[in-house]
Amino acid sequence: MRRAGSATAERRARYSTTVLFLSVVLTTVGILAAPPCGAQEGIAIPAPVLDTPVRPVATETAVVAGGCFWGVQGVFQHVAGVTNAVSGYAGGEKQTAHYEMVGSGKTGHAEAVEITYEPSRISYGKILQIFFAVAHDPTQLNRQGPDVGTQYRTAVFPRNQDQAAVAKAYIAQLDQARTYKAAIVTRLEPDRPFYRAEDYHQDFLTLNPTYPYIVYNDLPKIANLKRLFSELYRERPVLALQSSRTN
Question: What are the φ/ψ torsions at residue 190 (nearest 5 degrees)?
């Protein structure tokens, strides 16, 4: 759960309470509420034409941001070939990489997820395809669903020049194909360090599957992953807290 004392946490808690109330009402009258970003999230999109070369390494990392990190982390924890997915912050400085500070929207940080993956099993391009298809809506500027602010921006933080080239080409490819109803606003932010978030944020989706915010905003992402990428979906997630204890 979010710690007390954070204005952002309190807003999200109030939102969850409202969603829970509305869900009960809508269920009672037989109306099913759709996810807030359903039109631009959970859609089939083409794979990238350009992808990174396969390197003779066991693992590589990718860092992306697409709104609240709970859902983005949850998605990639269910992807085969991913060995870890960690919630954290990227875009700002080390001394401001703390949830209460990032929530102000004044640190330059975005809530981000660092994905460790096996390039022999899944490519960087496929990671981006999942990110753009099911993890978030790349057409929303400085927000995702109910969360508003630059800390919820859509961004890719390339770890090297190959990743930067693939991400830039893929965004152009999707825009040219008019994949979405609006232009992609995802920012490319190279050379920005990633800082791990507090432990109480790690594995939040798995540990709190009935939390109203998760039910309404994030569980549909997992369902879309299973539907659109069935060959890569795995039922049992890889958990960040377990990985940190074994390393």
Answer: -75, 160
Distance, CA of 13 to chain centre: 20
Whether residue 37 lies in the annotated active site? no
144 DSSP β-pair partners: 147
Q: Where are the domains of the chain?
A: 7-246
Reported pTM = 0.86
Contact 158, 169 (CB under 8 A): no
Q: How far is CA 192 from CA 52, 107, 168, in A?
A: 20, 13, 16
Q: Superfamily for 7-246? A: Peptide methionine sulphoxide reductase MsrA (3.30.1060.10)
CA–CA distance, 67 with 189 (Å, rounded to integer): 16
Q: Is the dihedral angle over the CA atoms 197, 93, 125, 222 positive or is it negative?
A: positive
Tell me the backbone φ, ψ of residue 220, rounded to 5 degrees. -60, -30
Structure tokens at 137: 């809506």
What's residue 213's pLDDT? 97
User: The tokens 């860092």 sit on which residue?
Assistant: 63
Q: In sequence order, what are the residues at sequence separation of 6 or more whose Cβ sits closer than 8 angstroms to the Cβ of residue 71?
A: 135, 136, 205, 214, 217, 218, 221
pLDDT at 197 over 90: yes
Please report, for residues 46, 72, 125, 183, 240, the alpha-carbon distance to residue 177 in angstroms, rounded to integers and kept in the order given. Answer: 9, 25, 17, 11, 36
Q: Which carries the bigger pLDDT value, residue 8 or residue 137?
A: 137
From the candidates 63, 65, 68, 222, which is the catalytic residue? 68
b/e burial code for range 216-243 (CB count within 10 A of at least 16 → b): bbbbbbbebbeebbeebbeeebbbbeeb
pLDDT in tens, 121-144: 999 999 999 999 999 999 999 999
